[in-house]
TrEMBL record:
InterPro entries: YspA. It comes from Ethanoligenens harbinense (strain DSM 18485 / JCM 12961 / CGMCC 1.5033 / YUAN-3). This is DUF1273 domain-containing protein.
Amino acid sequence: MTVVQKNCALLGDPFFLLLFDSDRGERARTLRDVMFHETEKTVQLGYRRFLCGFTAGVDLIFAETVLELRRKYPEITLESVLAYENEAASWEECTRERYYRLLGYCDREHLLQTRFTTGCLARRNRYLIDHANMLLAVSDGLLGNPLQAIHYAAVSGKSTLCISPSTLLTQKIG
């Protein structure tokens, strides 16, 4: 009998980088707590492989969350899915150092292309969803790549759990 591995894609809205990447304030801590709780629930549902887009902000918080959960659940894995090489080159030094430190703890790294091109972030999001059974996202679902990713997950038949950074409520889609 073959056991099917359950994979979860993790995706955050880069807009919230301004609000949450600095990890300051009660709202950022509360969002982190909600992300931790929802990620742990996916582990308890049998998800073992976590794929993360590794953009600054919410994605890095998701990566830290999985690594923290790995202490309690050593069987879970974290894989980075990088849209292009040197994506972090223009980031602030502290965020870039955090990015490279977290990459060092990944079980696997997927580099999708060497240079930035129009649409490469959307391609990364499609890769995340195509290789997952569900999507766990932080987004208000208003604009941009996260909204497109949530829509793509829905039409691909993947369930999505979306955490609103404004209200901190979760919504199941699909």
